[in-house]
Design a protein that fits this description.
It contains 11 helices and 9 strands. The strands form 2 sheets. Strands 7-6-5-8-9 form a 5-stranded parallel β-sheet. It has a 4-stranded parallel β-sheet with strand order 2-1-3-4, sandwiched between helices. Helix 6 links the parallel strand 5 and strand 6. The two termini are about 35 Å apart.
Amino acid sequence: MTYSHPHLLGIEPLAPPEITAILDLADQYADLNRRDVKHADALAGLTQINMFFENSTRTQASFELAGKRLGADVMSMAMQASSIKKGETLIDTALTLNAMHPDLLVVRHPHSGAVDLLSEKVNCAVLNAGDGRHEHPTQALLDALTIRRAKGRLHRLSIAICGDIAHSRVARSNIMLLGKMENRVRLIGPPTLMPSGIEHFGVEVFNNMEEGLKDVDVVMMLRLQRERMDGGFIPSEREYYHRYGLDAEKLSHAKEDAIVMHPGPMNRGVEIDGELADDINRSVIQEQVEMGVAVRMAAMDLLARNLRARRQAKPEVAV
């Protein structure tokens, strides 16, 4: 099993064999999660703390469930009501957490780089559950697992990522992961929602959905991130849906067996047609949610193995 990192902070540092190692183990956990008895003991005796400085439903619930199924003691902190609101710094929060001796720390934060900073200050494994516009590594990994299970492979596919690219850490992590695994990545969206320097990303850029979707294997829609927008990025939601919302007519330009993805939460009738989102013959959106638990189980399992190995190699001095 090839995964040597002490943390999971982003896709950028991962080599293809490490990505494959996570996905292979996640495949096993996906099978476990479909059994009547869904529990394992990979995290038995370990403590997992979830710190979500931004609201989350899918990711937080997924990490909680993953930790509990692996036998961890799981605690989720309500950061909106935490001492951060009283003026405590992120460093002071890290010191406080250190005193609790957690083993796994799952963090979502609105500022890019905040999770990296925390990882340098705590004596445990840290998982990035999304930091600003930077990265969302477990989302990219669960998307990769979903694609691999649906298509039978994760290389040399043509994959379109559509919508609000500029504000999306999901897009950033997926561009890196899919590129590392030798896929052809296309970005589709209005120029106002493309990040600066996009020409250096190793992708093809389209402003027209019909052209961009031609003969692709995978269509990955993104949520319009209104909370990160501070100007007129789109004329109106109605106009956006007309030009960039996925419907049956636009999807007809993709391959006949192309799958449709969305990280959620969806704005139906804005980014994607509701009937298409629910079409079990094309949409794998519910599979993405299912694979999220499996991927997070795999990531925490591998990090826990490395954590235990380091602790055995360097026993803590008794106080």
